[in-house]
Write a structure and sequence with these properties.
306 residues; eight-stranded mixed sheet; 9 helices; globular
């Protein structure tokens, strides 16, 4: 329901196909306006990201430079700085306001001395890196680039020999509510998924230089000249009753879905969402006891040959 920084990720349990980052590639999403939701989403999903980084750490033992390509407000980039205390971390993104939030977060977390930002359109901006990366991470940012195969090749070119490219794409649609919530037609979230998929397909088709690709990520990584070394999926499971901050995230993500998908839903589903977002309604996401967050994030990693 809503992850990592692109808009298709504004789904309450899982960024779905997005993860919330501004990449500067011609989509019409106002990432700065979404900053608070993106930050909240990444914070809620941080336990899954932490497990993914621990898995990557088995391959990338002492990185000197880590790049988060499509970093958004910097939640994962700061987590990287904390996970790899000997590394310099660069948060790269197309949104200057989001990078401002990333720098402020790094200062609050005490990692600002090893934290830099790089503003500009991906992947071209990465040529400004001072030296090659030992780990380049792209969390649901790749699908905001029209030619994903070319972008992977550009990412691979910025790796040091033996460096790792990790992409977070795919996973499963997230969930935050029971199938039957007691009003409206059961299966609301499945219909929201379908509307999101249609919106995502339109977004991809409208990107500059869009190229359709079979989403076989290990094969695409191999085509970029890398050796695929593993794929793993990391579960986020926050059962009911959820903490207040998680409930606030779910409400924010459902609000975003109501705003962007309204014309794709029928009147009954719009009315159901309105009830879910009405703080005075006992059945709303603000008040109901059965709100939860369940999401699955899939990470593919590959190494540049020495």
């Amino acid at each position: 329901m809503a992850h990592d920084h692109h808009d298709h990720n504004a789904h309450p349990a899982n960024d779905g196909h997005s993860h919330g980052h501004s990449h500067g590639h011609g989509d019409d999403i106002d990432w700065a306006a979404m900053a608070a939701l993106l930050e909240s989403e990444a914070e809620v999903h941080s336990p899954a990201y932490a497990r993914a980084l621990a898995w990557l750490g088995k391959e990338v033992t002492e990185p000197g430079l880590i790049v988060d390509a499509g970093s958004g407000p910097g939640v994962i980039a700061c987590l990287m700085a904390e996970t790899f205390p000997g590394a310099r971390v660069v948060a790269a993104d197309g949104s200057a306001p989001l990078l401002e939030r990333a720098r402020a977060r790094a200062a609050r977390r005490g990692v600002a001395d090893r934290f830099d930002t790089l503003a500009g359109e991906l992947p071209a901006s990465l040529v400004e890196l001072d030296y090659p990366a030992d780990l380049l991470w792209a969390s649901r940012s790749l699908h905001h680039l029209g030619d994903q195969k070319a972008a992977l090749a550009a990412f691979a070119a910025r790796l040091a020999p033996g460096g790792t490219l990790a992409i977070l794409e795919g996973g499963l649609p997230g969930r935050c509510l029971p199938r039957d919530i007691g009003f409206g037609r059961p299966g609301l979230q499945a219909r929201l998924d379908a509307a999101q998929e249609d919106r995502f397909a339109r977004m991809r088709a409208e990107l500059p230089g869009a190229v359709a690709e079979t989403e076989d990520w290990p094969a695409l990584l191999s085509a970029a000249g890398l050796k695929h070394t593993g794929t793993r999926t990391f579960l986020l499971d926050i059962p009911a009753p959820v903490p207040d901050r998680v409930r606030a995230f779910v409400v924010g993500a459902l609000t975003r879905l109501r705003d962007v998908l309204a014309e794709s839903l029928d009147a009954e589903d719009r009315a159901t969402l309105d009830r879910l977002l009405d703080p005075a309604d006992p059945g709303s996401a603000h008040r109901r006891p059965d709100v939860f967050v369940l999401a699955a994030h899939t990470v593919h990693r590959a190494v540049r040959p020495v």
